[in-house]
Amino acid sequence: MVERIMPEPYRIKMVEPVKVPDRDEREEALKRAHYNMFGLRSQDVYIDLLTDSGTGAMSKYQWGALMIGDEAYAGADSFFSLKKAVKEILGFDYVVPTHQGRAAENVVFGTLVKKGDVVPFNMPFDTTRAHIFNNGGEPLDCVIDEAYHPEVQHPFKGNVDIKKLEAAVAKYGKDRIPFVMVTITNNSGGGQPVSLENLRQVSDVCRSHGILLLLDGARMAENAYFIKTREEACRGMSVAEILKETMNTADAITVSCKKDPLVNIGGMVCSRTEELHNSFLPRVILFEGYATYGGLAGRDLEALALGLREMVDEQYLAHRVAQVRYLGDLLGEGGVPCVTPAGGHAIFIDAAAFLPHIPQSAYPADVLGIEIYREGAIRGIGLGALAFATPDETGRIVYPKLELFRLAINRRTYTNHHIEFIAQTILDVYGRRDAIRYGLKEGYAPAVKGMKHFLVHLEPYAL
Ligand SMILES: *Cc1c(COP(=O)(O)O)cnc(C)c1O
Predict the structure, then answer these.
(1) Domains of the chain by range and CATH?
(2) CA 245 → CA 27, 90, 195, 211, 227, distances in Å?
């Protein structure tokens, strides 16, 4: 059942006109884009759900703060605005800004991971995984088994399986495990939350073995909101208190500030101790910029300091999570197969179940993307075989377990009416799904592993 919809806790002060391209224009745009959603121009798209990264709307306070940015190379006031917000909202004494999340990973993993190391995770995000490989290490998924089943209900599907973690610690030991990392919410597993109880258990395991615990906090506020609504022991706490408690379990965090912290660009590394913080600084200066600006302008730091405060606003979070769930409910009521329960930032359609007559080798998630764009000029992204299939040692293609299509919801950007239009569009495609009888084959594809789906050229062929 669709619950009563929650109205937007904001009003619109400045509009960004968008136009709906007509059917001929959409066909032209698809051809120009080589049928790859990354190839579309923004002006060809009516509702853009490609990603929730850096695509949210800043508040009038953030826009106002841009004017007071201090652009000093070192020791800018704006850095101290950020440092104060980090201390107040997250409780860390030390912070370095970076230009985005993967830059924070480059700083931390380049400093701490050496060849032969193993890093246990619930699940790492793609760039996180790539950075560990790049430093000669190996990530190890320790998420609970429920995470791999789209239809299984669990309030904290992002949790770490403590038995798997203990087994990893017993096998590799402190010498080969530089740190354990937990992604909150678990993006690669569908934006699913991790409970505070689970984080405390992970922290206990780490402390008893003298291993650092790091968090990937891109969606730490959404995670705290899920804890408030789903974890009995935390019901009486505010989201701000829960977030602080969450952070208390960790020695350091990396953050893509383009997600929950509500800015269009930025990242950061926050550390508990001066020793850890100092160990990161040479790499910050080498790759990002001086330690007090890290690749960002002073005005960006001001907007970020405010974004950190705004992200824990409970009315905002309640609406955000309800809006994502509303889309999931509308699609579910119409029979569209989706990952459940809905995550914090996106709805994932099970494309294999939506288009069961298209084999995974013909990229059904990406066919679905083309059809949804055709129907309503809405852009999402396929996360299936095109993105994740890899050849094994013998050259045989190993397909991913899940063939998903993601609709990421931008923060404070679209109204519930847009959500209804998105659902209607997808239901229209669902109604004519049996007539969708084509696959996609690759034309140009880049040689670099893991980069294919961003750059590949695709061509439809009849099935
Ligand atoms: C987006 C993201 C990153 C990488 O951040 P960028 O800002 O895109 O570089 C890392 N971890 C998670 C969980 C993310 O969602």
Answers:
(1) 23-52+313-462 (3.90.1150.10), 60-310 (3.40.640.10)
(2) 50, 9, 11, 19, 11
